[in-house]
Specification:
The structure is a single chain. The protein is mainly α and 476 residues long. The chain folds into two domains: 204 residues, no CATH class; 208 residues, no CATH class. Helix content is 85%, strand content 0%. The relative contact order is 0.10.
């Protein structure tokens, strides 16, 4: 957990610096072009992995034949997916009516080969819980790619600076993992291994494919209906919101999936793990996202300049959706860990079909406001479906989870409303206004925590070393 946290927050800090600098060197149009292609790249990567990465982690004792079979499958699918993207690039550029996208997609598509080359090694490290190596490589890669991207953006390469960033971010880990991990594929493709892993991995692949399509469809719709600049504003809002909402949950879920897989035969232990993880993530992310929602304008002014103020409304809506997304991810992995990938796929198909309908229908009826409303519905509806599955098949009842989370949600909401009303009575400078709103929220929230010591607070303390709990030392 410590190494994963170090990786995530170091990378987040580097992205933070990168976002500040690049927002002044690049335009919303540049970001919009990359955002429009995100759905095609994401779907292609999903086809390459095919759910086999999760299958390798879920299987207790993978063999050399298992690893080699998946390695050659990944490379073959990368070749096929790149060929499809290469041929489709002109049609995609005509769909958006932007000729530049054809060249951009064909160059950025090279990432697929790099991704396929190291997906087995990456999953081997995760299965062994060797997050130290993953963290060091990821941090180093982020620093190098940041330097190259800033240099290219400064020299006027525009969107190609972002393309280079994606290629470098994929290439360095692939090279390092190849030389660091002594595993090498053998010249074999085992039909038995493929069939065994396919039984679990196929449904995981379909699940990931649907989830990725659902998460990226906004970019497809916005890019088609609106200008690249609007897409750029939305992309910046998404990337900024993800720094907060995804950072905590991704740290914990990256570590816990292998542990869930190990505990798959003990549903009581698995249910306790889900409960603790859910409450801890909610305790951290709920107040954080409320603070970001309240301070969105000064944050974007300070970090990106007034050029990006149009992103603020999108960012605020996404913060609320991010609360549901964090909880949704925690309740997804356990179903896969107990081997019910087919069940997870079936319900993913149902919930995402309804969610996508809400997004498309919202855009058609109410424009961007309707689309954003659909995004919120999609995240929270998916969360409630997931806790229903956890309730039925693992035993952590959905009503119990709602009760466990209610104090956190209520206190966070009250703190945000009180902060907005009190600070809003005065007419401060935009930055002072933001600082005071954040301070009031945290005073109310942590005051409640230390006064009543809810269970979520005690779980939160267990991930903080005692030497860093300065408030406890002063009280003692």
């Amino acid at each position: 957990m410590v190494w994963t946290a170090l990786q995530k927050y170091s990378t987040m800090f580097i992205q933070f610096i990168s976002g500040i600098i690049l927002a002044r060197l690049l335009t919303p149009y540049d970001y919009g072009c990359i955002g429009m292609l995100a759905i095609f790249m994401t779907l292609a990567e999903a086809f390459i992995d095919g759910g086999f990465g999760s299958a390798l982690i879920q299987k207790k004792q993978p063999t050399q034949e298992d690893y080699s079979t998946i390695f050659w499958w990944n490379l073959g699918m990368a070749l096929l997916m790149y060929a499809i993207l290469f041929v489709s690039a002109p049609a995609i550029s005509r769909f958006y009516d932007i000729s530049l996208l054809c060249k951009v997609l064909r160059v950025q598509g090279l990432v697929l080969f790099i991704y396929a080359f190291n997906v087995v090694q990456r999953n081997q490290l995760k299965k062994k819980l060797n997050f130290k190596v993953l963290s060091i490589v990821t941090i180093t890669t982020s620093i190098i790619s940041l330097g190259v991207t800033i240099f290219m953006a400064y020299k006027g390469f525009g969107v190609w600076a972002l393309v280079a960033q994606n290629l470098i971010t994929a290439a360095i880990p692939a090279i390092v993992f190849w030389f660091f991990i002594k595993w090498r594929p053998i010249w074999t493709f085992s039909k038995q291994s493929f069939k065994e892993l396919f039984g679990f991995g196929f449904y995981m692949f379909l699940t990931h494919l649907i989830n990725n399509f659902s998460n990226k469809i906004q970019g497809l719709l916005i890019g088609k209906v609106y200008s690249p600049a609007i897409m750029g504003y939305y992309s910046k809002a998404v990337s900024t919101e993800h720094l907060a909402s995804s950072s905590i949950s991704s740290i914990m879920t990256q570590v816990t999936y292998p542990l869930y897989a190990q505990a798959q035969s003990d549903l009581v232990q698995l249910g306790n793990m889900i409960r603790r993880l859910t409450m801890t993530i909610a305790y951290i992310t709920f107040p954080l996202l409320f603070v970001l929602l309240l301070t969105a304008k000064p944050i974007f002014l300070l970090l990106y300049s007034d050029r990006w103020l149009a992103s603020v409304p999108y960012f605020q809506v996404l913060c609320f959706a991010g609360m549901g997304a964090c909880l949704m991810s925690v309740n997804t992995q356990p179903i896969a860990a107990i081997g019910k990938s087919k069940l997870m796929f079936t319900w993913t198909l149902v919930k995402r079909a309804i969610g996508i309908t809400a997004i498309v229908g919202g855009l058609y009826l109410f424009g961007m406001k309707g689309l954003l409303g659909g995004v919120i519905f999609n995240c929270w509806f998916s969360y409630f479906v997931n806790i229903g599955l956890v309730s039925k098949y693992i035993g952590y009842k959905w009503i119990r989870q709602i009760v466990d989370l209610s104090p956190i949600a209520i206190v966070s909401t009250v703190a945000a409303v009180v902060s907005y009303l009190i600070v809003g009575l005065f007419h401060f400078n935009v930055y002072i206004d933001g600082i005071l709103k954040a301070v009031v929220v945290f005073i109310i929230y942590f005051g409640w925590s230390m006064l009543f010591k809810p269970e979520s607070y005690t779980y939160f303390l267990t991930i903080i070393p005692k030497r860093f709990r300065f408030w406890e030392k002063k009280r003692a």
